[in-house]
Amino acid sequence: TNDATSATNSTNSATSTTSSMPYARVTAVFESIEHESSRLKITALVADFFLHILNTSTPENLTKIVYLFINRLGPDYEPDLELGLGETLLIKAISECYGRPPAKIKKDYQKVGDLGLVAQNSRSGQPTMFKPVALDVDTVFDNLTKIAKSTGKDSQAKKIALIKKMLTACDLKSNEAKFLIRSLEGKLRIGLAEKTVLIGLAQAFVAYEGSSKVGKTIKTANTATAEEVVREAFSQVPNYEIIIKHAYAHGIFNLLDHCQLTPGIPLKPMLAKPTKSISEVLDRFQGEEFTCEYKYDGERAQVHMLSDGLVRIYSRNSEDMSQRYPDLISIAKDFLKKQEGADNNVSSMILDCEAVAWDRVNKKILPFQVLSTRKRKGVDEKDITVHICLFAFDLLYLDNVSLITKSLKERRQVMTENLIPIEGKFQFATAKNSSNLDELQQFLDQSVKDACEGLMVKMLNGNESYYEPSKRSRNWLKLKKDYLAGVGDSLDLVVIGAYIGKGKRTGSYGGFLLASYNSDTGEYETTCKIGTGFSDEDLVQIHAKLHPTEISQPKPYFVYDTTNSNAKPDVWFEPSMIFEVLTADLSLSPIYKAGHQQYGKGISLRFPRFLRIRDDKGIEDGTNSEQVAEFYERQANIN
Ligand code: ATP
């Protein structure tokens, strides 16, 4: 029954049953979601619509529609698929399309606060000489991709031409222009987060299979399992095209048989929960065998070896870093030669590591700050001065076999038996198995002396020690020496505004407004103002990076106190940068907003101090509002 006919393009859409869908159908659903506040109802709207696509169209079309819903154009690991166009360019396109001066558009924008609406309103009243062909999903998707990929000196003009073409085709009576502009800006702001899209997808498949195969109502328990399956599949293979294709062909409940780790597709890394003390660690792992490893302070590197011998390195954020680390590719090629006497070389592999700056003369680890001075683009191996040592802590896949459902003890054994350490280039993470408090304290102190951040404590045996892609798991705890006095960890927060510098800081920003991402609502909720911990160079560098991202209005998805001037910055930014910050503690605040739905008031950081820019994290991967609330709850003395 599953007709897997491939998607047809827009040229024959009029006749084919698998035709591309009118874009207006998609924006109508966006509109309904925008006006809905109940999460359950939003999920149902998403699921119903996806079910409709499954019933009437192809998996290819469903994939494109899912991407439009999450405002992306392909998997995270594929480069150059980002939208997020600046307001100046969009104002120019809207102005040229409707023949209204940019100043007028800008003024409307200041009034309305939403360029999408401004575009839609500019549209009305325009005389239409002829009725343009309606926009369909294929055309919009293809054009958005062209816009994202367009670079070089004519790219601005090309982008504007494509935007104008699409705006002209928007139906006068629909809201297409509004959502098209918002998509181009990089955020739909309809209160829909990716989490909900995944759940909606699972529900749609359950209903689709229920109606097409057995014709019975599907039980909730089934739906919950399907959600778990889709989430798990996505954390191993973060690619909607592959997931939808397999769910369609084999059924949602068989998805995990078909979506497994694949060298060349970076999986979402497993993450750790913070802890504040060794005794907290001992409480957690009471009676279980656990292991401690150095927590190296560098950059996470997922090393893949594909079956054709190609080596690829991916960041924590699934970005391909192979060009940035040509030296690591050479190192990997060396250690991938198996031990002497072994039958054959490694044929395929996924290895989880931390890449750390290494002093080749004194044979020791260098601090993260040194690593961060490495060039990010156009790196030529022979010009490299900051060398890297790769510290491997987990092996997830070897010779066509996924190891993630083996115990950590077994994974380690396979790792050490198959790969050969090379001093100063490729080493295994220093580890110690002990549950003695004094020994652990010594090991923690030693890790810091050896230029590490502290320890990672991990469950060693049984299914609790399986590798859990994308999960922040309590089977991995991080114990950071420097942060034990505060909340136990640093926070990674998004910079959404700044205060103009005075005195010594004239000419740059003097302080910043930070926010946490709310992964349920897609909003950014303010957490604090920060002005401490910056060196003069930091401020110069940050100003240079953030100045071009200034926007004339706060985004409608910024949640901040409009009445208190302290909580309202002088300039706002398009979210693009994450600061890692320390705090003395967290408290409820009348003017900040993180977690405000839960507590009435928001949670804010007291005495925040800047540590560094986190450019290995995506803007939605920082400490989210839910985690801020967790930190707050975990503080010993809440009153
Ligand atoms: P952090 O701010 O602590 O780096 P994070 O959100 O990037 O936070 P966490 O899960 O909190 O990630 O901490 C784990 C990170 O520590 C990993 O992403 C990895 O880059 C690094 N790391 C260093 N040594 C190890 C190790 N032995 N095992 C696992 N991760 C390690």
TrEMBL record:
Keywords, sorted A to Z: ATP-binding, Cell cycle, Cell division, DNA damage, DNA recombination, DNA repair, DNA replication, Ligase, Nucleotide-binding, Nucleus
Protein's name according to its UniProt entry: DNA ligase
SUPFAM superfamilies: ATP-dependent DNA ligase DNA-binding domain, DNA ligase/mRNA capping enzyme, catalytic domain, Nucleic acid-binding proteins
CDD domains: Adenylation_DNA_ligase_I_Euk, OBF_DNA_ligase_I
Family: Belongs to the ATP-dependent DNA ligase family.
Pfam family of the protein (one): DNA_ligase_A_C
Example GO biological process: Okazaki fragment processing involved in mitotic DNA replication
Entry annotated with the keyword Transmembrane helix: no
Molecular function terms from GO: ATP binding; DNA binding; DNA ligase (ATP) activity
Gene3D superfamilies listed in its UniProt record: 3.30.1490.70, DNA ligase, ATP-dependent, N-terminal domain, DNA ligase/mRNA capping enzyme, Nucleic acid-binding proteins
Alphabetized PANTHER family for the sequence: DNA LIGASE 1, DNA LIGASE 1/3 FAMILY MEMBER
Skewed-composition ranges (Low complexity): 2-20
Main location: nucleus
GO annotation, cellular component aspect: mitochondrion; nucleus
